[in-house]
């Protein structure tokens, strides 16, 4: 095997799918796409085929590129009053309490399939259909319900995922009981849909029979997604946002996503410390930096009419070490892969909390990204049709002056950036192994009105004067980082977060 590969994904099933593609001669991008297809379709409630997301790729000797395939505002060519619209507020006790909105009018234009197609065309080595084969086989025979899915579905199984007949059948016993973690899940029609997309091509999801079925269903049910939205959807290619820490050049998701700018600003500010440690002083600095940058995001970026300009202001202030200026301002899956040729690929995908809507005969759970209130602060009218929604996602690659390459990312809503920040510092600056860096205890600054508190895991020496919310052990609340690295002399290093049931694989396994 000339080209060896390492993969970290959110499940062992997904990692093994990437391994199958590696054995078939695929590269890091092929393996990451195959793993992502399995992950998004075997973690109900966490992600789905009706998702959007981002891919960051760094090829040897080339500048890093980020592909924007995130969800877009629907309603192209239609007047707002052309039909009744249906959106349903839902309160879930999940995660300490979540308010979201579900139903047909929360469905944004899904970009996930177009995104993976764009990355495959640009960097892949294997045919498109080959990348779908693991997902088709797994979804046809059924898969065990992941613990992460079960814990979310305990709250959302009936009010959200009980909204469609096929979806309810997939997740519940005939007597209405939610299936338990580990029980077999077969989503009706999903394997056939995946096989069709693999065989016919990604275009069928947007302009073929699948796209037509989605649009017809959503419009009839009270949503805005229509055939024009799907036909006009395009993946956007952007230069990645670049920052540095020590010997490493880090490439991540640029605006209009906010996650990459937030991560880059925090990396700059933490990198200005003379000595990075997680003693009391280092943790105080980490809290100060998170308060500054997350506070700026909350006050300026979440409702910005000039996101590129406000993100640039954030990065300029961070580069100057200007914490004062910043403080004065106010469900996801991930796969990382690298190969021995130095190619790195990081994919993060999200369908929000799920709209609960599934067009009959498709097996496609659609997203509720217009109703994801803690991220989409503008609600159901966030902008003109076709405009992208804001996102926390920050799929990241990095390269060191010694030739080591890294692909890394995380699910976790607004904890994505803080999880990545701490993991990168652990690995780049504190000399931890990749697995040690990923599983080290974390903290995250939360805001409640004008007040803040520090959510933190056990064993961190947080100052007693800080308002805190303690977690007794490692918690999925703090993300689920997956990372894969390759060094030309020492080979592969790979890590999956114990906070989620992640999976890893390398060509040496």
Using the alpha-carbon principal axes, give the shape: globular
- Cα gyration radius (Å): 21 Å
Going across the major beta sheet, what is the strand order?
Answer: 8-3-2-12-11-1-20
CATH architecture of the largest domain: 4-Layer Sandwich
Q: Would you count the extended β strands for me?
A: 20
Q: How much β-strand is present in the residues?
A: 15-25%
Number of helices: 16
Q: Quick one: CATH class of the largest domain?
A: Alpha Beta
Distance between the termini: 13 Å
Number of domains: 2
The residue-averaged pLDDT reads: 91
Structural class given helices, strands, pairing?
alpha+beta
The biggest beta sheet, please? 7 strands, antiparallel
CATH third-level topology of the largest domain: Glutamine Phosphoribosylpyrophosphate, subunit 1, domain 1
In percent, how helical is the residue content?
25-40%
Low-pLDDT segments, ≥5 res = none
